[in-house]
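Sequence in, structure out. Go.
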Amino acid sequence: MPRRFIPPVFLLLAAILWSLGGVLIKSIDWHPMAIAGGRSAIAIPLMLACIGWPKFTFSRAQIGGAIGYALTVVLFVFATRMTTAANAIFLQYTAPIYVAVIGRWYLGERALRIDWLVIAVALGGIALFFLDRLTVSGFWGNIVALCSGLAFASVALFLRKEKAGSPVTSIILGNAIVAVAGVPFMLQSPLGDGGAWRLLLLGTLQLGLPYVLYAAAIKHVTALEATLIPLLEPVLNPLWVMLTLGERPGRWALVGAALVLGAVLTRAGLMITNRRRRPAGVP
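Output:
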């Protein structure tokens, strides 16, 4: 595979693997924070096996990425409990807007017109997908979900800042924070029947591996590209749940999914084209 294909393919694979979270989490009878802590604890050894011993520089970007990651996981859990799952997912994926605005100042990476178009089309598609489930209720839950989106944006920004170092180290530190925070909840009640292997899948296939791919890709793409391609995840996530439970998505949901898929694949194609034209040695 030509090297220019690798970063967008890694991001697409990461989004697909992340999207398995909904169907797996719904099948585990355990406290949400216990699930978050357990899967983070499982993800750490897998990530270490993939990358070896990480480079702990404890730079501002590395610490910022770790805190941003931990906040993303924890805030999303609380948002899902305080508002509808549709609201939580939609509002978290406002992240590209924050990255487009902050990235120019923090990283010197300017958003292109096509980027703003992709953001608009993808968010419109997500809104259509969840048309019958988006609500104005759960005010504070919606605020927490917006903060979750800001936290996810900070992960992309800080990891991109660490591109010359070891971006995945921030994720390992973040997982350690979440794992420790989840311990009290793990001790409150035992894991339900059949939950162990599902938790193992969550920690390895749904969290550990995709973040290894994400951290590898972000060295070679802009922070905005690193949040645009994963916009595929919020559409795939409930689709797996629908298919597993035998539910059929409505007409508008299919239209929304098609819009998101088209926007993401178009942007991924432009990434490949731009990398082909880019001078050698330019990240």
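Check: Residues 3-274 form one domain. The chain has 13 helices and no strands.
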